[in-house]
Amino acid sequence: MNHLPHLIKDLALLLIIAGITTLLFKRLKQPVVLGYLLAGLLVSPNVTLFPNITDIENIRVWADIGVIFLLFTLGLEFSFKKLMRIGGPAFITAVIEISAMLGIGFLVGKALGWPLMDCIFLGGIISIASTTIILRSFDELGVKNKRFAGLVFGVLIVEDLVAVVLLVLLSTIAVSRQFAGMEMLESVLKLFFFLMLWFVAGIFFIPSLLLRAQKYLTGETLLIIAIGLCLTMVLLASLAGFSPALGAFIMGSIFAETIQAERIEHLMKPVKDLFGAIFFVSVGMLIDPHILLDFAGPILLISVILVVGKTLHVTIGALIAGQPLKTSIYAGMSMGQIGEFSFIIATLGITLDVTSKFLYPIAVAVSVLTTFSTPYMIKLAGPLYEKVNVALPGKWKRTLNRYSSSAASISIVSDWKQLIRSFFIHMIFFTILIIGILILCVNYLQPWMLHHMKNPATAVAVSALVCLVILFPFLGALVIRKIQPESEIKLWGNKRYRGPLLLLRFVRIGLALLLLGILLLSFFPLYPAMAGEVLLLVLAIIFSRKIQAFYIRLENSFFFNFNHREIQEAKASRSELAPWDAHIAQFTLPPASPVSGQTLEEVGLREKMGVNIAMIKRGDNYTLKTPARDEKLYPGDRLFVIGTDDQLEQFRKFIEPESSTIEKPETQELVLKKVVVKETSFMDGTTIRESGIREKTNGLVVGLERDGHRILNPDSFMVLKQGDVLWIVGDEKLIAAAREQQ
């Protein structure tokens, strides 16, 4: 055994202890993260009950890899599209809560007499809630489909992005050891510049690459490509002066917009679990029991302040954002904990050697205490709401209700405001993109050309030409791309807006000329650059149509990549059911379900709850679309059920009284089509069952429109008549054939 490297011995010890503690915490129904922390404590030099890790530095390298993969998978779940869709309430709530907790953490540290950097990092540590712990608690309590859960998920998305920004800001503060306003502003601007540049470039190329190579993407190949691109972005982030974790998060968010996102997430899970376990164990290794005893008072104080502070400020933020009192209190009671991002922030302080040794174990101890309290806090949300609702004066409650209703109704934006907002987004986006490409050409392309070409003048000219070719479509788009054309046409009809509209056009032209001048001056002296700009302006006018057509192709390609996953999911989930407030949800039938072994006819779901089972997935390869009435249900079946929120909740309780797993529907090959019952139709005068529509279309009648009334999941004994509009989920070709046979 002496010839065996220390790393292998350490990993064996680390993983076996982690495995045992994980089993223990699973049995106790507690988060496995706590088991990893305990395992780290047991194998650390601070505890002598077990053999200790000997090569701590190598374990830390593996832990750093764990942080990278943890942030990569968080990015896969993040998605910038989700950030754009969360809306005002979640954003306002998150900003109020994070700002308050940053300030509270700093003041608590000051009150305890801690050094400045400890106070700053404490604010960052207690400001970010744990996505993992909240999701686990929601799963266990069966509240993922409640209204307040949607608000919490939105706040968590904003918090993830803020946590990434905090990593950059704290690194900047740590290096300067002071609040340097200009340095912080520069870091933030640099961060958003690279975020936009990397994201746009990633969306242009990565989805297209995956789409073209789709038939070659086995699980092994896709995993290698995903990890390779992740580590490449980690390298780019490091070269740009950012945290490696930021690069991993960005690449994950780029993959989140591809149709391979779920598959990559599935493939990455064992890799993330392995390296993530090592990371959390390494966190536990840094816990010193003596420090915990010495700082027991501050740990309890910070834990109480964190729970009360986050609960209070999330609730206040949600109320200010226009959410009802009940939703606000439930959301506030769900977010009183810290987790993985807090560990990463605490680790940053140790890595940069700017925080005291006691801060890290205190952060871990606070996380452990608040993790245990989270499920109980969520359970207490109901009783707390009842008490607050009773205690509030009637006038206050009416004021809150009016405010919530008015906030929800504010959705109309004037054409002018909409145009101005789109104008500035357009200008900022293209300016950053053009400057980013220019910086790459000047700093990397031109030196490479000078190194490989004998004539310096030729090298500079070729570099400038390549840069111009790349930038010309974007410069053209900056000037000629239409922004909110419908709003602009309406406004042009009003003479008072014609002057401002012309001014906006001149501003776009002026900015494009300024950027073009900067580009040319980066390669040539003043007078040649001026001559070149005039020449290029003439060429742009002559070839404006071709430039515009080329840019439109690029833009269409970008938005196709950006929206491809959403389009595929829309086809699967069939959002046309929205008029009935119905949607498809996925349930996994548990082993102890009372309906296991029964046929669909025996269960009578449509008659009892008004829901339909559109598809059953059994195992990895067996799929039943629109299952027949004599089909039996078995444990482990994944049921794709159509119904409203209330119906689905009733169904969940019916198949699994205590808890259930409700997920977003996977990709399905079903379509929703409408069929109108004609005068000569074979369906006229028959019941839905007698019409044989199920057999003819291999589908289900999930909706019926009659005389302006809509019926979701109509009874199979309902008699059809001329003019009825049937909504059928089933095989597209068979539905079309049935429509033709009428």
UniProtKB/TrEMBL annotation:
PANTHER family: SODIUM/HYDROGEN EXCHANGER FAMILY/TRKA DOMAIN PROTEIN, SODIUM_GLUTAMATE SYMPORTER
Keyword Hydrolase assigned: no
InterPro entries per record: Cation/H_exchanger_TM, Na+/solute_symporter_sf, RCK_C, RCK_C_sf
Superkingdom of the source species: Bacteria
Domain called RCK C-terminal: residue spans: 572-657, 660-742
Keywords associated with the record: Ion transport, Membrane, Potassium, Potassium transport, Transmembrane, Transmembrane helix, Transport
Protein name (database record): Sodium:proton antiporter
Taxonomic lineage of the native organism: Bacteria, Pseudomonadati, Bacteroidota, Chitinophagia, Chitinophagales
The keyword Membrane belongs to this UniProt entry's keyword annotation: yes
